[in-house]
Design goal:
By secondary structure, the chain is mainly alpha-helical. It contains nine helices and two strands. Helix 3 packs across helix 4 (72-94), helix 7 (113-123) runs antiparallel to helix 8 and helix 8 (128-158) packs across helix 9.
Length: 211
Amino acid sequence: MARKEQTMKSIFTNGILKQNPTFVQFLGMCPTLAVTKTVSSALGMGAGVIFVLVLSNLVISLIRNYVPKEVRIPMFIVVIASLVTILEMFMELYVNDLYVTLGTFLSLIVVNCLILGRAEAFASKNGPLKSMMDGLGMAIGFTLGITLIAFFRELLGAGSITIWGDLSLQILPEAYQISILVKSAGAFLVFGILVSQINKIKMRNELKEVA
């Protein structure tokens, strides 16, 4: 029993730490750079990815033995597209402001290489519980990644943190704001700095382990 729990733990933490989709695998870069202008939009996209990735992994794991290899990828896309459609309908009805903010990037979840990649690499080869745990870990890792980027972009670029809709906290005065960070180029800049710092920490930890 303990061994099974440890295995589940390693599957879950793998997507958050060792194989983080944003900072390690560089997957789903389109929404990473496009929807990280505010913390609220990053969290909204993250919630959508969690919903789609966990459920798509579950469904694909359940049907994997009944789908011919020749139509495996098209079937995966059908499953993912169906879940994205449900997500869009829900968000349009209940959180319309967020739905409008995310725009076409919500629909692009269908072709997000993170979701299709986990379907092919993990869910199609493992049972439902492990597949759900893998999807949850990867989706949370993705959400943490884009939220971290959005936090620094919004805080240093606009001097505020948007909590929900128009509700925001003004933290830095205009004199201390770096306006380029809320522009498209700012996404690349913040992303590059965060990746370099994360790699620096990883290398330092590896050197400590060797020593």
